[in-house]
Amino acid sequence: MDYKIELIPISVTDIDRTKAFFEDVVGWPADQDQVVEEADLRFVQITPPGSACSFCFVKGMEMLGAGVKQYLQLVVADADAAHAELKGRGVEVSEVESLPWGRFTHFEDPDGNHFALQELPDYAAALAAREAAATSSAGDATQA
Question: Beta strand pairing status for 41-46 and 54-59?
């Protein structure tokens, strides 16, 4: 049985501002913008390009705690390209940082929710390099 995340709800203080930020600045269009009048609820669903999982920005679900900062991490193929695209659109985005577990750039939405964009390391290449080094070391030891 596969389990896949489809939606992550995030409560915001100003849903129009959040929608405008993601559509007009980040460049991710809204999939839905719905009002449930009997529940005094509004939600805007936005799916990052290429993702199977959406963010659902919500106004009116107090149990989610509007203004409570969330940390969300997305995977991108190229952190430098993601950084350049966001910066070009006017997003305040951090410089790309290289760490052993990936390359990262970060930005925040108007409510301070933190979005980390991670370029995964090439684990297969790293494993092949380690195996080659181990084989080379073993060969050096037998020739000595």
Answer: antiparallel
CA distances from 124 to 22, 32, 78, 119, 130 (A): 34, 38, 17, 14, 10
DSSP of 36-86: EGGGTEEEEEE--TT-S-EEEEEES-GGG-TT---EEEEEES-HHHHHHHH
Q: What is the mean pLDDT of each run of 10 residues along the chain (144 residues)?
A: 84 94 96 90 94 90 68 93 97 96 94 92 76 75 60
Rounded Cα–Cα distance for residues 61 and 13 (Å): 11
Angstrom distances, CA of residue 58 to CA of 1, 4, 61, 114, 138: 30, 21, 7, 16, 58
Q: Which CATH number fits domain 7-136: 3.40.50.620, 3.10.180.10, 3.30.160.70, 1.10.8.420?
A: 3.10.180.10
Residue 32 has phi, psi (to 5 degrees) of -145, 150
Whether the CB-CB separation of 22 and 46 falls below 8 Å is answered with: yes
